[in-house]
Each structure stands twice: as structure tokens, then as C-alpha cells.
């Protein structure tokens, strides 16, 4: 499952108008751009689209026009939706050039029924997203296909707490495994504990070994990772319930270190490796968005984190879109994976080796660093 391209605009014909011109993506992408160009906003736009398609964002927006193309099981899906004042103005889903769902601002539309091999009309409330209302594996498998892409995708804000301070409350009279199976959300970006326990439950020691191996590549030598109750002397939940925490044991050392005592950089690295390995082992093959990858890590670890993420994408485990303004990260990533954002007033355009081959190819012969390419601004 791959996001091929995306365009977006909001508040057209208003002072707060903003547009992202058509932008294309590869399996792994490093988005670079000067401050206030729109890197984090791009991540927010794609995250919003994932929420619309998956159903995590059920309500119509004040304003927004999305158009996105996907490759799913060798078929090309195009999804368009436009909002104005919390009313869906237009919605369309096509597969290989054939419309399968269309609707207008009145809520009326038509949709293809696979079992009957015909189109039937429908009417939904004007603020309802028809794609969400018509999810049906039997009759509308094309909707389920694109919804599965969105639900298997996730956004990680690497420069944030990343869930380090988030602990689970264990129910009394149940084991750690039983409790986490019942309460955890393996897809929650800030729930590394839940993702870890889902991975260990399904894949066992192989999941642990993959995490430990990736942490070693990042310069953190571990011999064990686990989830355990936190010592009550450190913290307890209300009513005396134990708190559950990720725990690591470093190689050649004996102390078991709970997540709240890890450095922020080490925890971010641990959480990221857990999330990426969950994507690899589970085979969900969604889109992983990582904003400010490498934030809080030193040069070698930041570059290694990027390399690990790109290796997961190259293996087919997922598609990666990451942002960074770190000079060393930029120099470590081939220009073939770059998306350079440039902003002209309210409009943002992205340049890649696919849509601007001449500019990228010419720079390769200069002998300068990738960072010089970033600062040159030599696009037109």
C-alpha cells in the first residue's frame, strides 16, 4: 500500500488560504525545508487524511480539499473530498479510473455494489463522510481496502514525549499480559507499551531480538526488553493499582531500567524501534509519518535512526515519510529520497528527483554536500 501523490487546499478565497501543490512520494521520503515552509503542516495534512479515511475523524471540517492517489494491490485508487463550513461539498473514490463512489453537497450520491455488479443511489447527512458510512467488505471491498491503508498507518512526533510518561494501570487479579491484551492500543502513537505487548504476544522472542538488534544499531547495547509492573515505591495508580512500564536491561549491566528513567533520546529510539518492528512483523504495510526524526539524538544515532527507518521501507514493510532539518541527517540520505519544500506566500511546492530530474541530476556533478543542495534553492 503506497501513497503516490497528494494535493490539499483550505480556506480558498479567504485571507487564511493555504495550498499544498501536487506532491509525489516514493517508498521512503525525507522532507526538508526551511523553517515555516510547511514540513510539520504536511505531516498534519496527511494525518488528517488518514483520520478521514479510517473513520478516526468522523466529522466534516470547516474547510479543506484533499486529492490523493494510492497504489493498493496493484490498483490505483484516487480519493477526493472537499469540505466547507462542516458540509461535504464533494466526494469521490475511483479505482483504476472507474468511479466507485460519488456524492455531492446535498449528501446524495451513488456507489458500486460488487455482488450485484451495479450502482445504487444513496443519501447521507450533509456533514457525513460517505466513505465511512459505506464500509462493507461484501458489497464495497474497495472502501475497506483504502480504509485498511489508513488504519494501518500512524504518525509519530519524534520531538515530543513520545509516550515516555505514559504508563498503564494494571487491573488487580490479572496478569500483565492479560491486562495489556485487554486495554492496550497497539496503533496509538504514544502507546509503546501496548505496541510492544502486542508484538511480543504474536511474535515472541523474535520480536524482542529485532528490537534489541535495532537498538544496537542506534548505539544502545541491550540484552533485554520487557514490560513489568513499576516498583510501588516509585509510583502507583490511584487506589494502589500497579503501573506497567517498558523496562530495558543494558548489556553487561544488571539494573532493570523503567522507561521513566531512560533519557528522552533513548526512550524515543526505543519507542521508534518498537513501532517500526510492529509494522514489519505484523505485515500491515501502512504509511509511517515521523516528524523531526533524530530530534534529541546525537549525529551518529540520528543518522542510524533514519537508516533503520529507510531499511524498513525498502523491505516493503511500510512506506516512510519523515521530516528533518538536521544537516547531518540530510547529508546521510540520498537525494533520490528527498522532498524539498519551498513556500511562496500561501502556496507550498515540493521538489523531488521525479518531478524535477534536471535540478537533481545537475547537482550530483557539483561535488557539494546534500545540505548545500538544500540551501541553494535552485528550483523554478
Instruction: Compute the CA-based radius of gyration.
Output: 22 Å
Q: What is the global morphology?
A: globular
**What is the averaged pLDDT score?**
88
Instruction: Give the topology string: H per helix, E per strand.
Output: EEEHEEEEEEHHEEHHHEEEHEHEHEEHH
Strand order of the largest sheet: 9-8-7-6-5-4-1-2-18-17-3-16-15-10
Sheet with most strands: 14 strands, mixed
Question: pLDDT under 50 segments (min length 5)?
Answer: 176-184
Report strand %: 25-35%
Count of beta strands:
18
Query: Residue share in helices?
Result: 25-40%
Question: SS-based structural class?
Answer: alpha+beta
User: What number of structural domains do the residues give?
Assistant: 2
Task: Map the helices and strands.
Elements: E1 2-10, E2 18-24, E3 28-32, H1 39-54, E4 63-72, E5 75-84, E6 87-95, E7 98-104, E8 108-113, E9 118-123, H2 130-133, H3 141-151, E10 154-157, E11 168-169, H4 176-183, H5 192-203, H6 205-217, E12 222-229, E13 243-250, E14 256-258, H7 264-282, E15 287-291, H8 299-314, E16 319-323, H9 327-332, E17 338-344, E18 347-351, H10 357-364, H11 370-376
Parallel strand pairs: 2-18, 3-16, 3-17, 10-15, 15-16
Antiparallel strand pairs: 1-2, 1-4, 4-5, 5-6, 6-7, 7-8, 8-9, 11-13, 12-13, 13-14, 17-18
Give your account of this protein's structure.
- It comes from Pseudaquabacterium rugosum.
- This is ATPase AAA-type core domain-containing protein.
- There is one protein chain.
- Mean pLDDT is 88; it is low at 176-184.
- Helix 4 (176-183) packs across helix 5 (192-203), helix 5 (192-203) crosses helix 7 and helix 7 (264-282) packs parallel to helix 8 (299-314).
- 32% of the residues lie in helices and 31% in strands.
- The strands form two sheets. Strands 9-8-7-6-5-4-1-2-18-17-3-16-15-10 form a 14-stranded mixed sheet.
- It has two domains: 2-153 and 334-376, no CATH class; 168-269, no CATH class.
- The protein is built from eleven helices and 18 strands.
- A hairpin with a 2-residue loop joins strand 5 and strand 6 (87-95).
